[in-house]
Design goal:
two-stranded antiparallel sheet; 7 strands; Ubiquitin-like (UB roll); 246 residues
């Protein structure tokens, strides 16, 4: 495959970025998208040009580091996958592919396609944890009865990898799906009930402080989420927040 790539290049947070066009040739349809990016960078290095900076780590669809906005879609045209799981067979020979970083005020660009997602970390630090009694009288978690339905819903919410696709695809750059998933995974379990009120209030407050937009229930976040996190979690978080404020 021979492809034209239009890639966002930006030297740093304070610099003005822009789209730069590159050509790549002899790309196998069996390559992953990131392998194609590696081929591009190898060719740039060979020509003594600056390679394109992009985030990646496990390349197994687990960490969410490989977050790219590809042809206007978070993680690209395939569904239920991260960018590192996207393969070039999803594209056609001669196609032009536009590659951008996440677009949100709360995710400032560090360089090229890499954005600062520490806002998510600060939200989790505000309440995404459980304080454990270590006095010696702790109860074994396996001894606490939990319905399978609640356990399944909690595990579904806990599958959120915090990649930020929900923010990038939302017209308001809302982080509601991410925060709702983190609130829900504890709200559904007895271990998380003790701090439930403080948790939801603190996390929602921090989300607002970070500058994320409001949710207008368009559902785009659920569609683009690589782990299929349901917007039912947003409704659950709203109920938890209302209960906490009352």
């Amino acid at each position: 495959m021979n492809l034209t790539l239009k890639i966002w290049r930006q030297k740093g947070p304070e610099d003005k970025g822009g789209m730069v066009t590159y050509k790549v040739t002899d790309i196998s349809e069996h390559m992953s998208f990131l392998e194609m990016m590696d081929v591009l960078n190898e060719s740039l290095v060979a020509k003594d040009e600056e390679p394109v900076a992009f985030d990646h780590d496990c390349r197994e669809g687990i960490c969410g580091m490989c977050s790219l906005h590809i042809n206007g879609e978070s993680h690209g045209p395939d569904k239920g996958i991260t960018t590192c799981q996207l393969h070039m067979r999803m594209f056609k020979d001669g196609e032009t592919i536009t590659i951008e970083p996440w677009r949100a005020n709360a995710f400032p660009v560090i360089k090229d396609l890499i954005v600062d997602r520490m806002a998510f970390e600060r939200i989790q630090q505000a309440g995404g944890f459980i304080s454990v009694n270590t006095s010696g009288n702790t109860q074994d978690a396996n001894a606490i009865p939990i319905s399978k339905h609640s356990a399944d819903l909690s595990m579904d919410a806990a599958s959120c990898i915090g990649c930020g696709a929900c923010v990038a695809t939302c017209k308001n750059s809302s982080a509601m799906l991410f925060v709702a998933a983190k609130v829900s995974q504890f709200a559904l379990l007895p271990q998380g009930k003790i701090e439930a009120a403080d948790r939801v209030k603190n996390m929602v407050t921090q989300m607002d402080l970070e500058g994320f937009g409001n949710c207008t229930n368009t559902g785009a976040c659920e569609v683009e989420c690589p782990k299929g996190i349901s917007i039912e979690n947003i409704a659950r978080m709203n109920r938890e927040y209302l209960r906490a404020t009352l």
